[in-house]
Amino acid sequence: MKKRVDVAAGVITRADGSFLLGQRAPNTFYPGYWEFPGGKVEAGETAEQALIRELDEELGICVTSIRPWVTREHRYEHAHVRLHFFEVTSWDGEINDHVHSALSWEHADRPGVGPMLPANGPILKALRLPRRMGITHAVDIGTEAQLTRLEAALERGLRLIQVREPGMPRDELASFAGAVIRRAREYGALVVINQDSGLARKLGADGVHLPATELGRTAARPAFEWVGASCHCRAELERAAELGLDYALLGAVRPTLTHPDREALGWRAFADLVRDLPIPVLALGGLVEADMDSARSAGAHGIAAIRGAWLQS
Ligand SMILES: Nc1nc2c([nH]c(=O)n2[C@@H]2O[C@H](COP(=O)(O)OP(=O)(O)OP(=O)(O)O)[C@@H](O)[C@H]2O)c(=O)[nH]1
After folding, report:
1. Where in this chain does the record put each Nudix hydrolase domain (predicted)?
2. Predicted model pTM
3. Is the C or the N end of the chain the one with fewer CB within 10 Å?
4. Is the CB of 39 under 6 A from ligand 1?
5. CA nearest ligand 1 atom 8, residue
């Protein structure tokens, strides 16, 4: 068995959402393949320190903002790697590459270069996951009010919606979810349906969202493009990862009206729970847009909200 090697890699992102890829040079493993800049963690270094050093050595930049994101393991013929991905959103200095054959700024939904290193496929998919999820609550505010707020939120840039309407009669739910999907399509937004895979399939939704109670009962990942789950503890997060889900929701970070009985986690416990997880996690529970920075600093991919998603900012 090969010894596991820790590697730190940076998703260096510009304001337009594009990120930097480098093409591996000749005389390395997988020459010509594309990767995120980074390299091996040396003895005595944290992964974060290693990435800051590598980006200075490889690209000549001094990182000024770095956030933990996801950690994935992969077994190559030459090595068993554990890849710690970080998001780098600001740096000093001009990028001046010393190690790659070429560099390219790419968008996750339309990569123009390839092939990517084999370990990086799920990473590109994770980068396509929107940073904000709006969770519907038409049962509380009425379907017309919810659809009006949905339109406004889509206009403001919301691109991921979970239809979650506990207690809504199935006929009504089918017609409401259909209306959500039609509106979302106009904006290229994704819609996942809470729990009901049959309805999701019938309506042609983009995916299904599993409540935590379903995680234990689900033997294999449901066959949809996007599948996520609600989690409240590390064991549930690990189960979601084991099933190969695309994302998890973790909360409640703050006390909420939806679950007033549940104790709030706070950002520190959130960060501990998501550390080194292989799938992106959206923070949930009493959050609004202004919480995005705290969420991402704690290792979240972004935020999900019921009430907060439909507020005008
Ligand atoms: N930097 C980087 N490495 C990655 C990515 N994805 C991925 O599987 N890896 C693997 O992680 C390891 C990176 O280590 P490295 O860049 O320091 O080493 P290397 O293989 O280029 O050469 P070396 O062994 O001579 O140092 C390689 O095995 C590489 O295949 C990625 O996106 N970025």
Report:
1. 2-131
2. 0.95
3. N
4. yes
5. 119
